[in-house]
């Protein structure tokens, strides 16, 4: 698999030589010495990122600003990094302040630039000198690296888990066709990452990618966010607003937490999927969406259909291309490669050199069940890297609950006491004990989300909280 390509615009011989040399195991570089060369290159090529060295420009920065604006318009998903001297021309300073452009000013700092590139292209593995299990991180032998299954312009998804390899192979086929895709997976399992990857391997990869977190929006604002509204449609509608279906153009929209949509919103969404048509809130004008939809949920939708909370017609339409992302505890072969990748990335981000990692670290990470999935693993690795000493990563830098191994619900004290005293429990005690175990297990299955646990148990949050208080499960 070819390495991601970075285009470097610079006349600085030190930067031209040292940056590609230091990152040669991760990226390939195309060096341009003028804006004209950059324009010619992007006429027939694409890249994973663009680095512009404007440290020595002597004009007002207007032509350089036009170059950046053109690239942002043509390649909205491509990361742009700009280097300037202590004095940055106003057009470039304004461009950096008003866009996602990464900006380093002052004397060129290779370490910061390398860390930024790694952050902008997060799926690549930063070399780590050595691990106690004999591997060498990203620069090691192919035998210790996860197999690349799905590869986009700026990211890739790697796995050694057979179940996930099969799923990703099918997902790649669906991603290349203009169909709506449903992703089901626990919080932190990688739904957003996969959604962006779907976009990058699709024919729409040069168009916008937009995300709508339905769970974070009040119910009354979701329709406006999706479909837009006209002035006066509701109290705070002081001007017309385009929704995501208009803003995305011919790109991709991720609708996360699709399960929170109300029935009326589900009807409108089904209509958009089937016909592309919708009306902004408060308008009679029918618009047509050209965007591609990826929808995601951390809940299985089938039980919601049975409970009458999700429309069957929308479910059957979405379920045609339904992909379930297994939680991290079902992907144990992937944990060491992921850990090595995060160690490299986070060490570079924080300017910390990790030369050695004890083998016991990876064994402990594989024993833990990771209720927070990949996101939790990354956060734990970040903590360990920050607290590492003398370039060494060992078990003492990891939180105690990680080292204790698999999660087990605490034993009910009444059960222990009954066994010790050989006293038969009453029916009420047995029911209470079983209820407590059910609550503990359901909490664990829902990553300790009280809202989702109450939903799964079919009770209100108030009732659920009272039961937790009854069994001494609140803090």
Task: Please sum up the structure shown.
43% of the residues lie in helices and 15% in strands.
Task: Describe this structure as you would to a colleague.
This protein has 20 helices and 18 strands. With about 475 residues, it is of the alpha/beta class. The strands form six sheets. Strands 2-1-3-4-5 form a five-stranded parallel beta sheet, sandwiched between helices. Helix 13 packs across helix 15 (about 375-385), helix 18 crosses helix 19 (about 450-455) and helix 19 packs across helix 20 (about 460-470).
Salient structural properties:
five-stranded parallel beta sheet; 20 helices; 43% helix; Rossmann fold; alpha/beta; 475 residues; Arc Repressor Mutant, subunit A
CATH class of the domain at 162-324: Alpha Beta
* Overall geometry: globular
Number of helices: 20
Strand order of the largest sheet: 2-1-3-4-5
- Beta strand count: 18
How far do the termini sit from each other?
50 Å
Flag low-confidence runs: 123-130, 138-146, 407-425
Main sheet properties: 5 strands, parallel
Could you name the CATH topology of the domain at 162-324?
A: Rossmann fold
From the 3D coordinates, which CATH architecture of the domain at 162-324 would you assign? 3-Layer(aba) Sandwich
The CATH homologous superfamily name of the domain at 162-324 equals P-loop containing nucleotide triphosphate hydrolases
Name the structural class: alpha/beta
Question: Could you state the oligomeric state of the chains shown?
Answer: single chain
**Helix amount:** 40-55%
Assess the beta-strand content as a share of residues.
5-15%
Radius of gyration: 26 Å
């Amino acid at each position: 698999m070819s390495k991601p390509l970075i285009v470097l615009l610079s006349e600085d011989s030190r930067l031209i030589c040292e940056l590609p040399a230091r990152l040669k195991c991760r990226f390939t570089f195309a060096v341009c010495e003028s804006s004209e060369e950059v324009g010619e290159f992007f006429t027939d090529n694409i890249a994973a990122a663009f680095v512009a060295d404007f440290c020595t420009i002597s004009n007002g920065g207007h032509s350089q600003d036009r170059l950046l604006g053109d690239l942002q318009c043509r390649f909205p998903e491509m990361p742009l990094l700009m280097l300037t001297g202590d004095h940055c021309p106003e057009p470039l300073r304004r461009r950096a302040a008003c866009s996602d452009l990464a900006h380093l000013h002052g004397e060129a700092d290779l370490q910061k630039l390398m860390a930024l590139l790694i952050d902008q292209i997060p799926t690549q593995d930063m070399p780590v000198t050595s691990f106690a299990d004999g591997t060498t991180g990203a620069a090691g032998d192919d035998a210790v690296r996860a197999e690349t299954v799905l590869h986009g312009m700026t990211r890739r998804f790697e796995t050694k888990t057979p179940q996930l390899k099969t799923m990703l192979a099918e997902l790649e086929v669906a991603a290349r066709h203009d169909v709506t895709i449903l992703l089901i997976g626990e919080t932190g399992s990688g739904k957003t990452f996969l959604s962006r990857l779907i976009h990058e391997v699709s024919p729409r990869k040069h168009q916008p990618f937009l995300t709508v977190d339905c769970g974070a929006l009040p119910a009354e604002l979701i329709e406006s966010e999706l479909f837009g509204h006209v002035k006066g449609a509701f109290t705070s509608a002081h001007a017309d607003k385009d929704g995501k279906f208009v803003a995305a153009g011919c790109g991709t929209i991720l609708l996360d937490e699709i399960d929170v949509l109300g029935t009326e919103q589900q009807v409108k969404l089904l209509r958009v999927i089937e016909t592309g048509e919708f009306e902004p809130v408060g308008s009679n004008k029918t618009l047509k969406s050209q965007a591609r939809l990826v929808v995601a949920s951390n809940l299985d939708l089938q039980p919601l259909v049975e409970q009458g909370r999700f429309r069957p017609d929308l479910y059957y339409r979405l379920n045609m291309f339904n992909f379930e992302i297994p939680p991290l505890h079902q992907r144990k072969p992937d944990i060491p490669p992921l850990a090595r990748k995060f160690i490299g990335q986070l060490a570079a981000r924080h300017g910390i050199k990790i030369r050695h990692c004890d083998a016991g670290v990876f064994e402990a990470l594989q024993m833990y069940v990771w209720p927070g999935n990949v996101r939790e693993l990354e956060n734990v690795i970040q903590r360990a890297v920050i607290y590492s000493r003398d370039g060494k990563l060992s078990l003492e830098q990891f939180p105690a609950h990680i080292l204790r191994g698999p999660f087990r619900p605490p034993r009910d004290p009444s059960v222990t006491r009954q066994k010790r005293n050989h006293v038969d429990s009453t029916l009420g005690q047995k029911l209470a004990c079983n209820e407590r175990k059910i609550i503990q297990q359901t909490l664990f299955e829902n990553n300790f989300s009280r809202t989702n646990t109450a939903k799964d148990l079919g009770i209100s949050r108030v009732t659920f909280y009272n039961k937790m208080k009854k069994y001494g499960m609140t803090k």
